[in-house]
Amino acid sequence: MTRALVLGGGLAGMLAATALADTVDSVVVLERDTFPDAPVPRRGLPQGHHSHILMRGGVEAIDELLPGTVDLLYAAGAKKRGLPWGALARGPEGWMERIDTDAYLLLCSRDLLDHIVRRQVLRDGRVTVREAVKVLELTGSASRVTGVVTETGEGQERLHADLVVDATGRGSNAPAWLTALGLPQVREDVVDAGITYVSRWFEAPPGTKDDFPGVMIQMTPGTGKPGQGAGLLPMEDGRWILSLFGSRGGEPPNDEDGFARFARERHHPIIADLIARATPAGPIRTYRNIPDRRRRYEKLALPDGFVVIGDAASALNPVHGTGMSVAAQCARLLRDELAGGGLRPKLTRRVQAGIARINGGAWRLATNTDQGLPAVRANVRLQGGALADRMAARVARTGCRDRDVINAVFGVASLVKPMTAMMSPAFLLAVLRGPRKPALTAEQAIAQFPEFGDLLPYGASDRPTRNTA
Ligand SMILES: Cc1cc2nc3c(=O)[nH]c(=O)nc-3n(C[C@H](O)[C@H](O)[C@H](O)COP(=O)(O)OP(=O)(O)OC[C@H]3O[C@@H](n4cnc5c(N)ncnc54)[C@H](O)[C@@H]3O)c2cc1C
């Protein structure tokens, strides 16, 4: 009889638990928090007050691990939006043409996503959860983890396991737990652009259609000024969420006036004009200190029986929107590795190396951009420099109006294509040639979306035909 303990019942923990359940006899999730019965906020998930996009790569991984889950999400009101077909987007270098690519996002509240995933994981009894259980430390030795010590209202308890998976999120104490077992300190890479999120929920104005596109305005690195951006996204139950974000020195304010002003100053007042028609549905919430940070467990002689997954292993600046999708892809890798021979010696090092590969791709994507923001603090040598910044700007400028370029860029960003998709001769040639059409004005970009209808005082043209050329 084999037993796995999963520490933390967030998205990574729940998906890891389901990945284990095919191979391990007993899978128990230990969660410090208590889970609500409905898709509502919980204390252990403070980031749930902010917008969460699930990339196509994450959608596909979740559906492979838990077939039917994505349909349940859509049935509960989640939206699918093509990139950039489905949402008015301004990239780092300009407004985007409404081009149909292979990339898409799934949009719903984090609370709904976690609620449905949790229900799916727990539905057949193969995974059980113990709530209000805080994990204090690991047991075992530097060569083998044998379980954990927990604390509940009734005192401390030692639990035995053949495999322990740490999914306790950004605040994971695994580095200290491992040094207590005699391992050296794990190396931690940090690139910190000082990102702050400020968000608010809204009731959409009456008459808003289900195909409301939303607006995404990205930060522009490499200008010497702080990066600032915003995303107004349609959610389930006729709600919108607006998240404003800024890097060090350009943090969005969290008072009513400042919030609306920051939205208004993002290249065009469209977001401010839209929320002026909507009804606030909650307070303005702030989340500070969100660096890119990855822990290099794959470089340690990690003890058998211990794996680190999700934000506990690598947590990135959320403007890149990859955290949950990466967690889902890592859980899928865990399932696949277990399918190839079950629990076995050295398995965990192999799994951790695979997790590091997946995390590494997302890390490069995030830090390539974040290193171009001013006053960035990093303990690793940053790649690139001025030439790389110029090349990134050219990719972004060309991608605004070139399908092949933007298809590759969003394919990589949505975690369905490898980085090499942006290195092919055809891609590089297109980027060197540069944009073949003039940049769109904000008005032209907005006019591509008749779905805004009369929510805006300024107009949209008739619905354009899909541009796949
Ligand atoms: C402002 C913001 C916006 C974001 N937007 C996006 C986005 O658009 N797209 C995206 O993909 N990602 C986004 N992210 C990142 C995303 O939230 C994380 O990648 C994701 O939550 C990682 O899941 P996780 O399960 O690893 O950690 P978490 O979701 O943080 O879960 C950790 C769990 O462990 C529990 N726990 C902690 N310590 C213990 C303990 N000692 N014992 C027992 N239980 C414990 C916690 O209660 C919690 O339930 C955003 C993050 C932030 C901060």
UniProtKB/TrEMBL annotation:
<feature type="signal peptide">
    <location>
        <begin position="1"/>
        <end position="21"/>
    </location>
</feature>
<dbReference type="InterPro" id="IPR002938">
    <property type="entry name" value="FAD-bd"/>
</dbReference>
<dbReference type="Pfam" id="PF01494">
    <property type="entry name" value="FAD_binding_3"/>
</dbReference>
<protein>
    <recommendedName>
        <fullName>FAD-binding domain-containing protein</fullName>
    </recommendedName>
</protein>
<dbReference type="InterPro" id="IPR036188">
    <property type="entry name" value="FAD/NAD-bd_sf"/>
</dbReference>
<keyword id="KW-0732">Signal</keyword>
<dbReference type="GO" id="GO:0071949">
    <property type="term" value="F:FAD binding"/>
</dbReference>
<feature type="domain" description="FAD-binding">
    <location>
        <begin position="2"/>
        <end position="339"/>
    </location>
</feature>
